[in-house]
Prior knowledge:
Oligomer: single chain
Order of helices and strands: HHHHHHHHHHHHHH
Shape: globular
Distance between the termini: 40 Å
Strand content: under 5%
Number of strands: 0
Number of helices: 14
Radius of gyration: 22 Å
Amino acid sequence: MRVVILSSLLALSFAVRAEPAPRPKVKPCTVTADMLSVYRDPAGASDQQWRAARDAALDLMVSECRHTGPRRGSERAAVFALLENEMRVDYANVFAARRKRTGKPLPESAAEGPMYFQRDLSEFIDRIVTAEDIQYKDVILRYGGGLAISKLGKAVKSSVFRQAAEPARSFYGVEMRSPQVEAIRAIGYWLDPGSPVLNAAERKEWAQILATLLPSDGILLDAEHHPRLIRTALEALSRSDSAAAEESIRTWRNVYQNNYGRGDSIEILAQEAADKIKARNRKR
């Protein structure tokens, strides 16, 4: 996330002096107004305002509270407001407004900045969420990653089940994420036999449900969203101890191979998922 910091550390490590390089100072946990102000008018915000907003958010993500997030109520609320606002930005409009303002075309890589920022933000939210963040459940369920959702635990179990069962009708973020996919990812964490969220019967039931997401004919319906759904289902199932799920994955993998051959990422993931379930059951 902070390439500059890493580069500085590497440079110092090759210094001639034998003295150990001083460790970079960790920034204090600070939430500033700059972090959210840009979202009042994303398309109308200047480049300087965008830089200030990004710097404020990224500083928070590498600050002394990078693993916990801010504790104070208003500051913690601002973090989840950041998640909601960022994932709702229409960057096509932002880029169009910038082109109109400057009269210059944007580079093809223009979308990479928001994409990497959203990934960093999602990882930050995954790290900091605890069961005590239940008051922000609507934002987390709608825009959070599967790990963050799973950390809310039993309090959102029924909501996650509903979300996982509903086909995606809307997507968010530069990478077009799906609330359904993230709910399935959350269930995957709960399928782990060590998780207290689901009982044995529920783990068995949801392993069977997720296995049905693997298309019986092995055909992918599109090049992006359906493969993502299948990968997520396989990753989720890999955390279970269901022998029936293992068998379903191996059977499906053979059908998939008949259509697409061996060696692509989905075929490999299916093999790994089945093997992980088998290894887990051998240890019992």
